[in-house]
Specification:
The chain has 429 residues and is of the alpha/beta class. It contains 14 helices and 19 strands.
Length: 429
């Protein structure tokens, strides 16, 4: 993949334009002048404009991922903001939100400012999510107001669930004053215990300690009740179980401030895939049963799930090439995202392509309060060009991340990102 500055006048010609904000799909061109939208549909671009032929391709908004781990500061050997940006552009993403579980964590106004300033050097938009508690210890609230002023777009202790219900209540109350969501990793640590995969028939067969779906659903239920009581914005990350889906669906009927995301890997795999002991499939929350996977798909179909987020989690070879019980939790997922969700949701499950693109563009932007209207004249171009029908096999050559912990190697995917345009630069596959 090469990233270069776009031409002063760039014409994306003869594409199928999907505008998820206005719910429109039509044929036409997109003209970019000085990195901004100059025309969409029928355009009057200069004759000397550089042309990219988009015949048979889809032109749409740049994807937005509200749940990634770029590991900077502290673990730049796994990922940096710059390498994470390359990974994002390879996957069609022009905007991401980075989780605070860095070393040190993003738990001060200064650390939020560090990310915001460092992100200016990157070809995509990077927004920091601030920690809820100092050192993510679950006990002492951070300076949330000051962190919000420095650019924090949400608050989360990420992989360290807030076990104390009173602390979660306080966090939700403070976040409500700032009108930002709280994102709590939904696992009861005591029920999860030392589980390394979903507790069930397969974990018993493999002799691996299990993490029951109850650990997730019990925490989701608590957080939903707290959010309703306070009137707060709660975002439920990486939903993995049918039980959790049921709780979210029931609460969303009463509370429109609740949102939820699902990952591509929870839509693609079930726990039988772990029979190979592939440590790249060791994630938190775990890959669950086929019944759970189907429940997640139904939740996408009926709107219980609001968006797709990758939970891109880079790890070193040393972190993963060990026994399953000792391996780190997490997988990379930006580069493979569209090929996975397009295959599962559009090609296999028959969802409308426009709706699936909405899950990757306008809906995550709405959750975080970002501008969803990207095709208006004068807007800075955030564009992804897709071949939605091409079948391809995912390999290490497709990875731009500093880490390679993907479970998709050798998997056949459907639909591929061709180009990504962001901040005046274009990434060409």
């Amino acid at each position: 993949m090469k990233i270069e500055k776009i031409a002063k006048n760039l014409l994306l010609k003869n594409g199928t334009i999907i505008d998820p904000h206005h719910g429109k799909t039509f044929s036409g061109d997109v003209w970019l002048k000085d990195g901004k939208i100059a025309g969409v549909g029928v355009v009057d671009a200069p004759k000397d404009a550089e042309i990219i032929d988009c015949s048979g391709k889809v032109i749409t908004h740049g994807f937005c991922d509200i749940h990634v781990h770029f590991r900077e500061p502290g673990r730049e050997d796994k990922e940096t903001l710059k390498t994470g940006s390359r990974s994002a552009m390879a996957g069609g993403f022009t905007r991401v939100c980075v989780m605070p579980n860095t070393n040190p964590p993003l738990d001060t106004p200064e650390s939020i400012n560090f990310i915001r300033e460092k992100a200016e050097e990157c070809p995509i938009h990077i927004h920091p999510i601030g920690a809820v508690t100092k050192s993510q210890n679950g006990n002492d609230l951070t300076e949330m107001g000051l962190m919000k002023k420095e650019g924090a777009v949400a608050f989360s202790d990420d992989g360290l669930p807030i076990q104390n219900g009173a602390m979660m209540r306080i966090a939700l109350e403070y976040a409500t004053m700032m009108d930002v969501p709280v994102i709590n990793h939904a696992e009861d640590e005591y029920l999860r215990a030392d589980g390394v995969m979903h507790e069930g028939v397969v974990s018993t067969h493999l002799g691996l300690s299990g993490n029951p779906d109850l650990a997730e659903s019990a925490m989701v239920h608590r957080d939903l009740e707290l959010a309703e009581f306070i009137g707060a914005r709660l975002h439920v990350p990486h939903v993995s179980s049918g039980k959790a889906v049921s709780h979210i669906r029931e609460m969303k009927a009463k509370n429109d401030k609740v949102t939820a995301e699902v990952t591509p890997h929870h839509l693609f795999f079930n726990d039988e895939a772990l029979i190979s002991f592939n440590t790249n499939l060791k994630v938190a929350p775990p890959i669950r049963t086929e019944s759970d996977r189907k429940a997640l798909i139904e939740a996408v179909k009926d709107g219980t799930i609001d968006c797709i987020a990758t939970d891109h989690a880079p790890h070193t070879i040393e972190d993963k090439e060990t026994t399953f019980d000792l391996a780190s939790f997490g997988m990379i997922g930006l580069e493979s995202c569209f090929g996975v969700v397009n295959k599962v949701l559009v090609k296999e499950e028959g969802l409308n392509l426009e709706n699936v693109i909405g899950l990757l563009t306008t809906k995550p932007r709405a959750i975080m309060g970002f501008d969803p209207d990207l095709f208006s004249a004068g807007k800075e171009a955030e564009i992804t060009i897709l071949d939605t029908d091409v079948e391809w096999t995912f390999g290490k050559e497709h990875v731009q991340s500093r880490s390679i912990n993907s479970p998709y190697y050798g998997k056949s995917l459907k639909g591929k990102v061709e180009c990504t345009i962001s901040r005046g630069q274009i990434a060409i596959q």
